[in-house]
Write a structure and sequence with these properties.
Layout lengths: L5 H10 L5 H17 L3 H33 L4 H29 L1 H28 L12 E7 L13 H10 L3 E16 L2 E10 L2 H6 L5 E2 L4 H6 L3 E4 L1 H8 L9 E4 L2 E8 L11 E6 L16 E6 L5 H12 L2 H5 L3 H9 L1 E6 H41 L1 H9 L4 H37 L14 H26 L20 H33 L10 E6 L9 H16 L4 E7 L9 E7 L10 E9 L1 H5 L3 E4 L4 H6 L3 E5 H7 L9 E6 L2 E2 L5 E7 L15 E5 L14 E6 L6 H9 L7 E6 H8 L1 H35 L1 H9 L4 H30 L15 H27 L3 H7 L1
Parallel strand pairs: 3-8, 5-7, 14-20, 16-19
Antiparallel strand pairs: 1-9, 1-10, 2-3, 2-6, 2-9, 4-7, 5-8, 6-7, 11-21, 11-22, 12-14, 12-21, 13-14, 13-17, 15-19, 16-20, 17-18, 17-19
Helix pairs in contact: 1-3, 2-3, 4-15, 5-13, 5-15, 5-16, 13-16, 13-17, 13-24, 15-16, 17-24, 17-26, 17-27, 24-26, 24-27, 25-28, 26-27
Length: 904
């Protein structure tokens, strides 16, 4: 026979008294339940549940009566007291929140303005914090990431860049001899064509030693890492990113063992990295094994690699740098090299930087500045709301005094006023979270390239906790001080004054808050003004070429016959002909490394006028073709430009920039003279090349360069015996339709070169804007914050004066009845508000003098203590403050004395 439901059986036994539990339970089950079960189990189960419910209800009633009886017998029992006090606290706060909600509902204007002000401040702060949290707070997903360092090189006093990548000989020596290093890896990153099945694109890749992966301490999401055994076997293996695995292979687990083609060479996929792996940055899609080869084949002086090391625990970066400097001194003895290389090593100084600082270095300061900026806006908003609360408290003083006279305690009044503050802060927090939820993606979209971990920015639990914390802080900042002030027992004296309180009561608090608002607004206005002036100065920098109406792109054709310079020359001629045929195209050219995008290579060049024993200067060089100089607006200073013959036949001709001419041929004309490139102290096999023209200087890297780069331009095809061909240059197209020609260009390229990826598509104006994106992004957000602070400061001043005018209506009416003229009344109110605003402006200028130094690294062409900015921005604040003072003053002067006195 079936038994009763197990859950009902357990409940019944729990509800029955212990002395009769077994007998009653057994009787119900064996007699009554089994008898009903013969008619049907369902009916028996329902009956059993009803009986169980009856016993449980009786049990609960008896238990409640017992507890009530115990409370009467032992009223001071600690547990009873705690529960009673807790219940009382909950009931008191519940009542206070209910009453506060009713009061706020009756003043919708005050409630909306207060909540909206807080929502803007909390939303802006939370949105910026979400970015700071993702980018700056624990940005590295590697174990013991604090011990990871990058190792770069410098050679003060040489013509090398201030910081450059070491060569393979540095890696080998540091690996073998540095006992402060636990592990070290070497890598080099770039962009190349990658193919897999029907997919082809130009992707960022990183070629590294297998030790790089062990140094980072990472594991793949699928498959394995390439290893030291792969190095020993010279295996052509690679790993792909999680995003590429999903996009190209549909997240197929069988991708391991498949082949991809990198730069035309097949590589076997051995692993898929996790979504969090982003070394050296988020753009990298393929990591492939690269061997340094036999140590005896290392050619010293070939720089440009990246070294990543893991320090041993407790090792300081300075101590490691000192050890590496000693090891580097022995490089010429171990690997040989030219006398010039030996002199460079004598000047060498290693640069050891934490990987975290290297990852977020350039973006850390702007983000911290922006977080500090919205923090100031938050304080201004709190000051504004506190002023509103003080004014509202003044208007409710009679009500509060009555409550005190009727016996209300101070704690109860504080709790009542804080309930309003907490409700308003909660409304502002909810609104701020919504603003941050909508604003964080917009912030990410507007952010410049190069900021790490931007894809991780979201309104997560940490950001929500930050918003909640700000809300509670706001409630304490703007609610606690007024609550304490207006709950003071001395406030009961208000009743004896028949409700007439002079405007001086509480004026110091209101004026102090206005001073804080005005001063903080001045600080933000000065900072924004400095960045705006820097942006203007950058826009005036002469970069040496035009950015207007120029479209640029790159293409990677895949044809087996492209094996030498002449074949590539024919491709470029064909591409330029097709581009010139497009409607509206004026001219077309190409360059191997586009200015403001990828920089250029550098090397040492010797002229036929130099002493062969002297160190040749280090200059940049590039490969140009077509009408590149005409398209980019780079002027011809002397001689001639390249002709079609120079490109197609690979003649031994070059163009040099004005600064390169000064370095190679000081004081004489370079036309007709010769230069040659020196590689490892030996002449390049290309030999001497004749200078046929001098062109204008250009800035390659950024607008902030102190001076343009000295440049050598070679034809896109080299002469025998070492013919070269530029495979994937950047084509530049002069057209008034630069913003709308992209699709036509793609279509024109797909016809002769199907499947060839067209990439890095943009206008030169967009490229120039990207070069200044960090400054413009910081400037834009700081200007928005400064504008918001200006408005909040003006609103705070207006609110205070409006309240003062409302409190002094009777006084003003008496003055006017006794003959005071309207202009004099207006002047009185304006002067009263103007003194407060002027004090705030003066304090703001003093604060700005001490704080604007943090912007110095972002400024260009402007000093941190720029006089024009420190005069103009405070003057703007005073002008807005004057307007905020005038409006209440005008209202005061329009008071009708008879109507005002009749109202009294």
């Amino acid at each position: 026979m079936p038994g009763p439901p197990p859950l009902a059986r357990r409940l019944l036994r729990r509800a029955l008294p212990r002395d009769v539990r077994e007998s009653i339970a057994d009787e119900l089950e064996e007699v009554y339940y089994q008898r009903r079960a013969r008619a049907g189990p369902a009916a028996a189960d329902r009956w059993y549940w009803r009986e169980t419910a009856s016993f449980v209800a009786r049990f609960l009633r008896e238990r409640r009566r017992d507890r009530a009886a115990r409370r009467q017998v032992f009223p001071h029992h600690p547990r009873q007291n705690r529960r009673g006090r807790m219940r009382g606290v909950i009931e008191n706060w519940t009542s206070d929140f209910t009453q506060a909600a009713r009061r706020l509902w009756r003043v919708p204007g005050f409630t909306f303005v207060t909540a909206a002000t807080l929502a803007l401040a909390i939303g802006a702060s939370t949105a910026i914090f979400s970015v700071v949290d993702a980018v700056l707070i624990d940005p590295l997903p590697y174990p013991a990431s604090e011990r990871l360092v990058t190792i770069a090189a410098s050679a003060p006093g040489s013509d090398m860049p201030p910081e450059f990548g070491p060569g393979a000989e540095f890696f080998v020596s540091y690996r073998d001899d540095a006992d402060m290093i636990e592990d070290i890896g070497m890598s080099q990153s770039g962009q190349t064509t990658v193919r897999a099945g029907e997919h082809v694109d130009r992707l960022f890749i990183t070629a590294s030693t297998s030790s790089l992966l062990t140094t980072l301490g990472v594991q793949p999401a699928l498959g394995r890492l390439y290893s030291a055994q792969d190095d020993a076997e010279s295996a052509d293996v690679a790993m792909i990113s999680h995003a590429l695995w999903q996009d190209w292979f549909g997240a197929d687990p069988s991708v391991i063992g498949q082949s991809i083609e990198v730069s035309g060479n097949p590589r076997t996929i051995v692993g898929v990295m996790g979504p969090d792996f982003r070394y050296p940055d988020t753009r990298t899609s393929v990591w492939m094994r690269a061997s340094i080869g036999d140590e005896t084949r290392i050619r010293p002086g070939r720089f440009g690699f990246s070294l990543l090391a893991r320090k041993k625990p407790g090792v300081a970066a300075t101590d490691l740098a000192a050890q590496l400097a000693i090891i580097a001194r022995r490089l010429p003895e171990r690997f040989g090299g030219t006398p010039q290389y030996a002199r460079l090593i004598e000047q060498h100084r290693p640069i050891v930087t934490s990987l975290e600082e290297e990852t977020v270095g350039e973006v850390a300061r702007p983000l911290w500045i922006l977080l500090g900026t919205v923090g100031i806006v938050f304080l201004i908003a709190c000051a504004n709301v506190a002023n509103l609360f003080i004014a509202r408290g003044e208007s409710r003083r009679r009500d509060l005094a009555v409550r005190q006279a009727l016996g209300a305690g101070r704690a109860g009044l504080i709790r009542s006023l804080m309930a309003e503050a907490l409700l308003l802060a909660a409304l502002g927090g909810v609104g701020g979270a919504l603003i941050a939820w909508a604003g964080a993606p917009a912030l990410v979209a507007a952010a410049p390239e190069g900021i790490p971990n931007l894809d991780l920015v979201s309104l997560d639990a940490t950001s929500l906790l930050f918003a909640v914390g700000l809300s509670m802080l706001a409630a304490c900042v703007f609610g606690l001080a007024p609550a304490i002030r207006f709950s003071n027992p001395a406030s009961a004296a208000y009743l004896r004054q028949a409700g007439r309180v002079g405007s001086s009561q509480g004026a110091w608090a209101r004026n102090a808050l206005v001073v804080v608002q005005t001063g903080a607004a001045v600080v933000l206005l000065v900072a924004a003004g400095l960045l705006v002036r820097s942006f203007v100065e950058l826009s005036r920098v002469e970069i040496g070429f035009s950015t207007k109406d120029i479209f640029t792109f790159q293409m990677a054709p895949n044809r087996r016959d492209l094996v030498d310079g002449p074949a590539w020359a024919q491709v470029h001629i064909d591409v330029m002909e097709r581009l010139r045929a497009l409607p509206g195209v004026e001219s077309v050219g190409y360059i191997n490394w586009l200015p403001l995008d990828e920089g250029a290579d550098d090397g040492r060049f010797q002229s036929d006028r130099m002493d062969p024993a002297a160190d040749p200067p280090r200059l940049f060089y590039n490969y140009a073709g077509g009408a590149y100089f005409e398209t980019m607006g780079i002027p011809l200073v002397e001689g001639r430009l390249f002709t079609d013959t120079d490109h197609a036949l690979g003649t031994s001709t070059v163009l040099i920039s004005r600064r390169a001419a000064e370095a190679l041929f000081p004081g004489v004309s370079p036309i007709g003279r010769q230069i040659r490139r020196m590689v490892d102290g030996q002449p390049d096999p290309v030999g001497w090349q004749t200078v046929v023209g001098v062109v204008g200087d250009v800035r390659l890297e950024s607008f902030r360069q102190a001076a343009p780069n000295p440049m050598i331009y070679r034809p896109a095809v080299g002469p025998e015996p070492r013919s070269w061909g530029v495979g994937t240059p950047a084509y530049v197209v002069k057209t008034t339709r630069a913003d709308a020609i992209a699709n036509e260009v793609r279509a024109a390229m797909q016809e002769p070169y199907p499947g060839a990826p067209v990439y890095r598509v943009f206008t030169m104006e967009a490229l120039a804007a990207r070069a200044n994106a960090q400054l413009s992004f910081t400037m834009l957000l700081l200007a928005i914050a400064a504008g918001l602070a200006l408005v909040l400061g003006a609103v705070g001043l207006y609110g205070v004066l409006s309240y003062v005018v409302s409190q002094r209506t009777r006084e003003i009416a008496v003055r006017m009845a006794l003959g005071a003229e309207a202009p004099r009344v207006r002047r009185m109110v304006v002067v009263q508000g103007g003194r407060v605003a002027l004090l705030g402006v003066l304090l703001g200028v003093l604060a700005a003098l001490g704080l604007t130094g943090v912007l110095e690294s972002l400024l260009f062409g402007v000093q941190a203590l720029d006089v024009a900015t420190f005069v103009g921005m405070p003057a703007m604040m005073l002008a807005v403050a004057a307007l905020a003072c005038y409006l209440p003053a005008r209202r005061a002067s329009s008071v009708d004395p008879m109507e005002a006195l009749r109202g009294e």
